[in-house]
Amino acid sequence: AQSVTQPDIHITVSEGASLELRCNYSYGATPYLFWYVQSPGQGLQLLLKYFSGDTLVQGIKGFEAEFKRSQSSFNLRKPSVHWSDAAEYFCAVGADKTGGSYIPTFGRGTSLIVHP
Amino acid sequence: ETGVTQTPRHLVMGMTNKKSLKCEQHLGHNAMYWYKQSAKKPLELMFVYSLEERVENNSVPSRFSPECPNSSHLFLHLHTLQPEDSALYLCASSQDASGGASSYNEQFFGPGTRLTVL
Questions:
Q1: Considering only CB atoms, which residues of chain A are within 8 Å of chain B?
Q2: Which of B12, B57, B68, B84 is the most exposed place for a label (fewest CB within 10 A)?
């Protein structure tokens, strides 16, 4: 079975500072990996995904994530945070197949707080 | 309307009421999902419909009853709920592979229905 851990419940950064949100997964092989963002009152939006190939993945809104097999990690980064980035961030791993596709398992989420 | 829509956005109901949540996707997808999102808990997959057939229900209590009349619409019928069922219920859709091919396709989420059970 697959699982994903987001060790930080809350992260507080100042606007303009760099950001790194941690994600660790558990799975025997290389899974599909995702980062989603959820703004207040909204559903989840996909930021980026990793399937194979280049381990540094670029996403929307200036985010990137790096897959490190040796550490079973897929951390999300952004060089300069904007106040509008304040939201809940979810890491997900998709490796267990249901029907025709891989249904993701989500982490508990990390709440990002941005100070002006 | 575009993307995935959900109605109502907010719902308050008593434990003896019967209500339904509605989800509609305008993306031409062939798979739809119900998730439950409780505070400080991981997102819980409740039901999966692929090509209008239910393929996953994850041992959800029978007081939750899904219905998928066509590939664009998904309902969640609620009856005799408990206060612990209060949560944000999210609907999602994706274009899944058929015929046994394996793939991952991005899920598109609706804004959710905030349910409060009194």
A1: 9, 32, 41-46, 49, 51, 90, 94, 97-109
A2: B84
